[in-house]
């Protein structure tokens, strides 16, 4: 019989999710071998600072890292950085590194995250066309923004808007190009997406909606402009492309695991193979609260999914039913918008959006309000803007809404009614 000390648990993905999984394995008493494999040369770090505080220059680089450099050795975690996992053979329980070196495992966790989508248009290889996913890309982008040249952001998603705000803060003229008619419309719906449009307009950001990029133009190997679908050319010293990410499912596909917009898992983050688990951006996990399979690309899913997967690997009962959560901070000068979003609702999954407080964006003050996405008077999602004491009651409202409990919309929008009283 194999002794616990003889077991090898391998985690592919030296990321926030992977690092928190390794931390939890040790905290829960696992005494065997832990190997944490990562393609990047940097030890595990959190990604939100790359487009927020670190990019702005308000947070030091070290703050992004999950653990101190010596933490891994102190906890007997083998950190294999700059190593690429190229094949996975579940029948022999082996993971191939760098195309040749086999690594045997007893349990394996796939925390491989996602890869940025790229634009395949003429000029896409010009040096001024940038993407943001890794810490060294944030280093390069921050240095470029400090030159205060003209910036074009392609894609008005979270990364695109945060970079637009950072570019404005660095003193750059900014234009955002978005194929949809509003920023974040597919995520937030028209009502709240318009608030983000107004926020950026108040800071002088120019939007070009309903169009995409035909070509990047340059001169003498240097980016000079962006040609849109309608032929308009925008001057540009720097372009940030933020058109989404795709889950890194190559290993799962090689192992013939089920993949459907991510690696398919049950509520315990187990794949169909009893010795392989998945968490973070790459996992399409069944959420019992939402009664659907869902892939969540945000920080909290990595932060919470890693520990949940580790406990599942140890045979502990796990039901990963967390309410999806994400946050953003945009702009440091007025009007600024810091928010937290809890819940899940698709573009056609709600009846209406209602507000507690005034969502109007003004140049003289920061907006302060809560937005609620309702269906049949059930709160399916909530977003608190520039209000930081409402997290727990909003989480309770959203969880109750997905469990079928309704609220009185008039009381919901009345600032005089405590949020904690709405479910009584």
Key descriptive features of the protein:
424 residues, 5-stranded parallel sheet, 11 helices, single chain, 29% strand, globular, alpha/beta, Reductase_C, FAD-oxidoreductase/Apoptosis
Specify the structural class: alpha/beta
- Provide the gyration radius in Å: 23 Å
**Ends apart, CA distance between termini:** 54 Å
Overall form: globular
Beta-strand content bin: 25-35%
Helix content bin: 10-25%
The strand order across the widest sheet is 3-2-1-7-19
Low-confidence regions = none
Helical stretch count? 11
DSSP, total strands: 26
- Quote the average pLDDT: 96
Can you summarize the main beta sheet? 5 strands, parallel
Q: Helices, strands, pairings?
A:
Elements: E1 8-12, H1 16-27, E2 33-38, H2 48-51, H3 53-56, H4 71-74, E3 77-81, E4 85-89, E5 94-97, E6 101-104, E7 107-110, E8 114-116, E9 129-130, H5 135-145, E10 151-154, H6 158-169, E11 174-178, H7 185-202, E12 206-209, E13 213-219, E14 222-228, E15 233-235, E16 238-241, E17 245-247, H8 250-254, E18 263-265, E19 276-278, E20 283-287, E21 292-294, H9 299-313, E22 325-330, E23 337-343, E24 352-358, E25 368-375, E26 378-385, H10 391-402, H11 409-412
Parallel strand pairs: 1-2, 1-7, 2-3, 7-19, 9-16, 10-11, 10-16, 11-12, 18-20
Antiparallel strand pairs: 4-5, 5-6, 8-17, 13-14, 14-15, 20-21, 22-23, 23-26, 24-25, 25-26
Helix pairs in contact: 1-9
């Amino acid at each position: 019989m194999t002794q616990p000390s003889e077991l090898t648990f391998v985690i592919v993905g030296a990321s926030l999710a992977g690092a928190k999984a390794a931390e939890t394995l040790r905290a829960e008493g696992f005494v065997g071998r832990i190997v944490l494999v990562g393609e990047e040369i940097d030890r595990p770090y959190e990604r939100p600072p790359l487009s927020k505080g670190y990019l702005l220059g308000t947070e030091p680089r070290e703050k992004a890292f999950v653990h101190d450099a010596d933490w891994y050795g102190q906890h007997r975690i083998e950190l294999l950085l700059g190593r690429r996992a190229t094949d996975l053979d579940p029948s022999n329980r082996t993971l191939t590194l760098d195309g040749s070196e086999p690594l045997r495992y007893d349990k394996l966790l796939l925390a491989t995250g996602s890869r940025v989508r790229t634009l395949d248009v003429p000029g896409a290889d010009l040096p001024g066309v940038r993407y943001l996913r890794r810490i060294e890309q944030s280093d390069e982008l921050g240095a470029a923004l400090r030159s205060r040249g003209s910036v074009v952001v392609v894609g008005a998603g979270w990364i695109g808007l945060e970079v637009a705000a950072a570019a404005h803060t660095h003193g750059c003229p900014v234009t955002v190009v978005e194929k949809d008619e509003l920023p974040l419309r597919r995520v937030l719906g028209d009502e709240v997406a318009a608030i983000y449009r107004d926020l950026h307009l108040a800071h002088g950001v120019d939007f070009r909606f309903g169009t995409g990029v035909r070509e990047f133009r340059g001169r003498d190997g240097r980016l000079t402009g962006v040609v849109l679908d309608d032929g308009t050319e925008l001057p540009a010293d720097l372009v940030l492309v933020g058109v989404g990410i795709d889950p890194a499912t190559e290993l799962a596909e090689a192992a013939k695991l089920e993949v459907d917009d991510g690696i398919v898992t049950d509520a315990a983050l187990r794949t169909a193979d009893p010795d392989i688990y998945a968490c973070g951006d790459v996992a399409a996990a069944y959420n019992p609260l939402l009664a659907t399979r869902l892939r969540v690309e945000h920080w909290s899913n990595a932060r919470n999914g890693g520990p949940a997967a580790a406990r599942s690997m140890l045979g502990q009962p796990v039901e990963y039913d967390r309410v999806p959560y994400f946050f953003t901070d945009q702009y440091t000068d007025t009007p600024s918008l810091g928010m937290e979003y809890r819940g899940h609702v698709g573009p056609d999954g709600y009846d209406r959006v209602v507000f507690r407080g005034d969502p109007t964006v003004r140049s003289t003050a920061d907006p302060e309000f809560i937005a609620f996405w309702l269906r049949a008077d059930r709160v399916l999602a909530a977003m608190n803007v520039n209000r930081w004491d409402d997290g727990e009651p909003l989480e309770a409202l959203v969880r109750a809404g997905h469990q079928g409990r309704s609220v009185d919309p008039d009381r919901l929008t009345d600032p005089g009614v405590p949020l904690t009283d709405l479910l009584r």
